[in-house]
Amino acid sequence: MEETKATEPPTRTHIKGNRNHLLHHHNQHHHIHPETTFLVVLVPIVLVILILAISLLVAYLRRVKSPKLNGTASANKSCMFNAHSIITFNGTTDMKKGCIYGGSPCSLPRATSNVVQVFTYKELQSATDDFNPTNFFGRDGFGNVYRGMLRDGTLSTIKMLHREGKQGERAFRVEVDLLSRLHCPYLVDLLGYCADNQHKLLVFEYMSNGTLHDRLHSCDGRSQLLTWGIRLRIALDCARALEFLHEHTTPSVIHRDFKSMNILLNENFRGKVSDFGLAKIGSDKLNGMISTRVLGTTGYLAPEYASTGKLTTKSDVYSYGVVLLELLTGRVPIDPNRPPGEHVLVSWALPKLTNRAAVVEMIDPNLHGQFSRKDLIQVAAIAAMCVQTSADYRPLMTDVVQSLIPIVHSISFGCSTSSFRFSKRVSPRS
Questions:
Q1: CA distance 15 to 21
Q2: C-beta of residue 250 within 8 angstroms of C-beta of residue 213
Q3: Residue 265: which CATH number?
Q4: Three-state secondary structure call for residue 330
Q5: How much is the pTM?
Q6: Of the residues 189, 257, 375, 399, which is catalytic?
Q7: Cis (ω within 30 of 0) for the bond into 251?
Q8: Which CATH number does the domain housing residue 149 bear?
Q9: Which of 159, 185, 206 is the last residue in one of the domains?
Q10: Is residue 331 part of a domain?
């Protein structure tokens, strides 16, 4: 008979030992390392931070870009640049000393397709019928101006450099350098140039109605063709030209010789700015100034520039104000033949511009009263701001543009302008 061995019931100590053994065995297979736990927590946090940073960056870029798009959308449709909506100049347009002062020769900008052509002297001789006096169009600060017909049938304006020496060479090179890269409907288009040995010529689009100066101040009654509406449209065209140069290029371009002689009129009496021979690249700082020689035309020079040589975009704003006074009064900036106290246009006009009764009396008699008094008061206020003695009180050209737009629109559509005021309020561009 087999002996049966009795099984003892497990004691509490035995059960506890077995449980500890099982837990130890389980932990051996499922042990979680501290490094893994750290990565599991860290990775989502980093991803969240990156997403937030990218979102903030996108929002910031949109915020910065939005005002530019809203403020310049119209200008960017009509003013085009080579490859960029904002043209950037590397350095200044003052060429290397070797180019101007007789050192090693430097080449002019190469012509690019559909932008600027390079002509030979013989080609331009042929275009002007050997510079026939019958094609003589006038004279400006650059030289003699001729009407010419290019080989492809394009009617053009051809300027022959008469300045000699360093200043003439610099003016020619600056004109070619700037206008080969600046493209805007409010600037005269440079079609090409000639640098054939000693011959220096510039070829521009043809502007059939000549200069604003000749139209305003001629003795043959031609100024009567410049009605009130046409004058204000020209003022707006020129304001947009300077706005483009000052605020849509980086760094800004300062014309330095803005005057009625350098405003050309096409067949529709639309104004375009020309003659960039004295232009300077401005400081890349906001309202920054540069020191330079005092060049330009007496009567148009801003006081601070004339006295110190400190040049800013506000110097052009002053010159623009003088041209605006010419459009309003029909007077030249300096006229020694006028009675005492009236020789200098700005000095004579400035006290009257804010006087509603006096400003009507100073208007150009060739307008024969065909103007809106409300428009006149507003335009006079703009002119008064532009010709302030202190540059800090002059407006930006963007402000001038936005102030002129509703006035010009009101003339175009024959509505009242009583609700408009000279301000920095943003208005829809035309």
A1: 10
A2: no
A3: 1.10.510.10
A4: coil
A5: 0.72
A6: 257
A7: yes
A8: 3.30.200.20
A9: 206
A10: yes
- Whether residue 97 lies inside any domain: the answer is yes
Residue 237 annotated among the catalytic residues of the structure: no
Q: Give me the torsion for CA of 74, 75, 79, 82, rounded to 10°.
A: -100
Tell me the per-residue pLDDT of 233-255, one tens digit each, with 9 for 90 and over.
999 999 999 999 999 998 899 99
319 and 377 together in one domain: yes
Q: What is the identity of the amino acid at 53?
A: A
Q: Mind listing the pLDDT tens digit for each residue in 353-389?
A: 999 999 999 999 999 999 999 999 999 999 999 999 9
DSSP string, 212-245: HHHHHH-SSSGGGGS-HHHHHHHHHHHHHHHHHH
**CA–CA distance, 89 with 245 (Å, rounded to integer):** 12
Instruction: Write the pLDDT tens digit of every residue in 99-138.
Output: 322 333 333 333 333 468 999 999 999 999 999 999 998 8
Across the beta sheet with 199-205, what order do the strands follow?
Answer: 117-118, 190-196, 199-205, 155-161, 143-149, 136-139
CA distance 147 to 361: 39
240 and 361 fall within a common domain: yes
The radius of gyration computed from the CA coordinates of the chain, to the nearest angstrom, equals 35
Domain assignment present for residue 32? The answer is: no
Axis-axis angle for helices 228-247, 397-413 (nearest 10): 150
Domain count, the chain: 2
Q: Which helix (H) or strand (E) holds 182?
A: strand 182-183
Domain span at 283: 207-430
| Residue 303 sits in the same domain as residue 430 | yes
Helix, strand, coil share (%) of the chain residues, nearest 5: 45, 15, 40
281 and 430 assigned to the same domain: yes
- 424 Cβ contact partners less than 8 Å away, ≥ 6 residues apart: 395, 399, 402
CA distance 379 to 234: 13
CA distance 313 to 246: 6
Asked if 323 and 259 touch (Cβ cutoff 8 Å), the reply is: yes
User: Where among 206, 240, 264 does a domain terminate?
Assistant: 206
Give yes or no: residues 317 and 404 share one domain: yes
Token reading at 186: 């409010």
Tell whether 41 is covered by a domain: no
Q: Are 143 and 161 in contact (CB under 8 A)?
A: yes
